[in-house]
Amino acid sequence: MKHLLHSLEASLALSPVGVAVELPDGARLGDANADLRLRFRDRMAVVALAMGEIGNVGAAIVEGRVALEGSMRQLMTAAAALLKLNPTHEGPATGWQRVLLRARSMAAHTLSHDARNIQFHYDLSDDFYALWLDPRRVYSCAYYRTPDMSLAQAQEAKLDHICRKLLLRPGDRFLDIGAGWGGLLLWAAQEYGVDATGITLSRNQHAHVQRRIEERGLQGRVRMQLLDYRELQVEQPFDKIASVGMFEHVGRSQMERYFATVHRLLRPGGLLLNHGITSGGLDNPRLGAGLGDFIERYIFPGGELLHVSTVLHNMARAGLEMVDTENLRPHYARTLWAWSDALEARQDEARSVLVAQHGKERGEKALRAYRLYLAGCALAFERGWTALHQMLAVRPTGHVEDGVLKGAQSDYPFSRAYMYEGPAATH
Question: Considering only CA atoms, which of 262, 324, 254 is closest in space to residue 113?
């Protein structure tokens, strides 16, 4: 233990921000005058900090075994300095490890498990999410088209960016897989005149979007279904499909089935926009340093990240042709910091909401977990441990003459100009 404490003291001295550490026996390490203070009630949490297992330290904070004082931005700066290894630098899994990982993934992604996992996260509390999301409650990476944009403006820019990429036109049959609180679904319907269908596994989100559809008088042109993507059956395939912030929940073992389902639901020549978090590392099944375990336990049970190359491989196997891929990684870092700052500013309200809905112990734990999750994910995107890719794909028609260019075999013009130039399409 003495050696670990010496190592910890040396690491604290290298941190760009001062950190004061109080050990369970009352001994103190680090900068006694620092604004960032960690009071340990558990020796194993001290060992985790000394070993650079910052995710495990985060778990100890959530469980109340470490008391935290200071800002999330200070904490993340210190956390990055205390890491011993890059969380993505794990070697490739062995043959047996791959078999075990696949078996676990298959067990975790049954219809019933996926429904419970989604409800665990998204049904925590609508009032809680409303405190730190933008007014449309868009819970995915924003698009800061210009540096001076507010979060709300950047989220609207993202919604429009997706609609432009999909070449949405009035009358298009549009599907939003994992439609959240309806931001994209309603934007596409109101600004682009599409016939829109959304699906979700969250009861709270389903009820919220139903209310918004009625408030806007969009019944008949917009619908929201409480449904797993694997159970969606349609008589006529969709012209355009978006999946935003959803495929992270699909699981490695289900990825081929996911894209095969999208292929089935998309008409020949139609477009898919798959927007989601990807792994920064090629081989690691989850982030190291205890970060992946923290997310699995407290935030997204069953979540699995794949490298973009693996995603595109599965997409191609399903018969979908990738025509454009864009990495918005730093946009997500800025989005997450905006969410984190908003939650920090409204901690008291957030605590009241969560305690009222879940009781004192669970409510307090949830608040501590989300404070760490939002800031920790911002750090991960800044450092490149995770990324955010928008992958635009088509289902080729198989007819060389189809499209604006010979061989296009789709609605895609094989030019990016339409994504960025000219006014947005309106109904």
Answer: 254
In whole angstroms, give the CA distance from residue 205 to residue 223: 13
Q: How far apart are CA 143 and CA 331, in angstroms?
A: 6
DSSP 271: E
Q: In what order do the strands lie in the sheet with 28-30?
A: 28-30, 19-22, 36-40, 66-69
Q: Which residues of 367-380 are buried (b: 16+ CB within 10 A; e: fewer)?
A: bbbbbbbbbbbbbb
What pLDDT is attached to residue 426?
Answer: 44
110 three-class SS = coil
Which token pair is 284? 């690691």
Q: What is the pLDDT of residues 252-279, one digit of tens each?
A: 888 999 999 999 999 999 999 999 999 9
Enumerate the active-site residues.
377
Q: What is the mean pLDDT of residues 162-178?
A: 97
Nearest to 391 by CA among 311, 299, 301: 311
Query: Which positions ≥6 away from 344 have C-beta within 8 Å?
Result: 71, 72, 371
∠125-53-308 over CA atoms, to 5°?
Answer: 70
- Model-level pTM greater than 0.70? yes
Classify residue 40 as left (phi > 0), alpha (psi -120 to 50) or beta: beta
Secondary structure (3-state) at 199: strand
Helix (H, G, I), strand (E, B) or coil at 4: helix
In degrees and rounded to multiples of 5, residue 50 shows phi and psi of -65, -30
124/217 Cα distance (integer angstroms):
28
Closest C-alpha to 307, from 229, 246, 389? 389
Rounded to whole angstroms, how far apart are CA atoms 271 and 398?
Answer: 15
Read off the pLDDT of each residue in 96-106 and give the average, rounded to a whole number: 67
DSSP-derived pairing of the beta strands 36-40 and 19-22: parallel
Query: Around 59, how many Cα atoms within 13 Å sit in the side-chain half-sphere?
Result: 19
Give the C-alpha separation, 153 to 56, whole Å. 36
Where does the pLDDT of residue 224 fall: very low under 50, low under 70, confident under 90, or very high at 90 and above?
very high
The pLDDT score that the predictor gives to residue 62 is 95
